[in-house]
Amino acid sequence: MGSASPKTAQQAQPANIIEPFLEVKSLSVYYGPKPALKDVAFAIPKGGITALIGPSGCGKTSFLNSLNRITDLIPGCQVKGYVRFGHSDVYAPTTDLLTLRRRIGMIFQKPNPFPLSIVKNMELPLKEHGITQRRQREEKIEKVLKEVGLWEEVKDQLNTPAHSLSGGQQQRLCIARALALQPEILLMDEPCSALDPFSSQIVEDQIVELGRQMTILIVTHNLAQARRIADNIALFWVQEGAGRLIEMNNAAKLFNSPKNPITASYISGAKG
Ligand SMILES: Nc1ncnc2c1ncn2[C@@H]1O[C@H](COP(=O)(O)OP(=O)(O)OP(=O)(O)O)[C@@H](O)[C@H]1O
């Protein structure tokens, strides 16, 4: 598929990063013997939004899941390579997974609130991470629900089931739940694709706002959305039977002057 050599992925990181906040080297993800993703080199600075794009099956979700070791939970899945964020070596044997997943939070395609009340959805992770004082939890819950623009909508119904909220409200609750743990990176796997256009726009605006304060990696199939929100873009593609990172650059540069012919075809809609 395509003419570019997989070796192009080795140069696929944005230029001018002196001290990457998140750095990935020689990353491969296997399901059984089959590689889903091979030899990914990737680096981003702290802050801003990086969109992961590419056709179905090119390894975007596998890449995202490998960053906070959600891949450990998938039977038969094996990750090889190096992932560092901040000063932490993600795959070091000493890595504490609860702490890792607090620092690298995750939002999934389908909103996944617990089958509990709105307030319990917020309280549970805070309790699990050691915030024992009720007053402290209440303050934190109000603060993050305000941050996602949900406080005014739910403050009088905090004890009602989270599943009674609309899809967009549920997704904002899940974002608030992740934010309550003060993650340094937020991984988002198509967070708007299961929402109606109105809710999708609200969540997208929220993501843009968050991208001003923290580091976000977002998988999106929506190129228009990637154009609107991303600072950096990483294009994945299947080559020689495995997903590869084909090109990565500042969003404007990637869209306006793609270096790889596959990128040019993909963003023009001719391929993928
Ligand atoms: N749990 C699994 N077991 C076996 N193979 C898997 C598993 N998860 C993903 N794969 C395979 O790995 C490859 C990459 O899948 P992945 O979901 O990472 O791609 P993707 O780019 O995110 O796709 P999509 O855009 O459709 O979500 C695919 O060939 C897929 O079938």
Describe this structure in words.
This is Phosphate ABC transporter ATP-binding protein. Keywords: ATP-binding, Nucleotide-binding, Phosphate transport, Transport. Residues 22-267 form the ABC transporter domain. With 272 residues, the protein is of the alpha/beta class. It has a domain at 22-114 and 185-268: Rossmann fold. Helix content is 34%, strand content 25%. It has helices at 60-67, 97-103, 118-128, 134-147, 151-154, 167-179, 197-211, 223-229, 251-256, 261-268, and strands at residues 22-31, 34-44, 48-53, 77-85, 88-89, 104-107, 185-189, 215-219, 232-239, 242-250. The strands form 2 sheets. It has a 6-stranded mixed beta sheet with strand order 6-7-8-3-9-10, with helices on both faces. Strands 2-1-4-5 form a 4-stranded antiparallel beta sheet, covered by helices on one side. Helix 4 (134-147) crosses helix 6 and helix 6 (167-179) packs parallel to helix 7. The protein is globular and about 55 Å long. The termini are close together. Mean pLDDT is 92; it is low at 1-11. The protein binds adenosine-5'-triphosphate. Adenosine-5'-triphosphate (ATP) is lined by residues 31, 36, 54, 56-62, 74, 243.
In a few lines, what is going on in this structure?
Helix content is 34%, strand content 25%.
**Ligand roster:** adenosine-5'-triphosphate
Q: Spans of 5+ residues with little confidence (pLDDT < 50)?
A: 1-11
Total helices: the number is 10
β-strand number: 10
CATH class of the domain at 22-114 and 185-268: Alpha Beta
Strand order of the largest sheet: 6-7-8-3-9-10
Q: Residue share in helices?
A: 25-40%
Mean pLDDT: 92
SSE arrangement, N to C: EEEHEEHEHHHHEHEHEEHH
Strand content: 25-35%
> How would the global form be characterised?
globular
- CATH fold type of the domain at 22-114 and 185-268: Rossmann fold
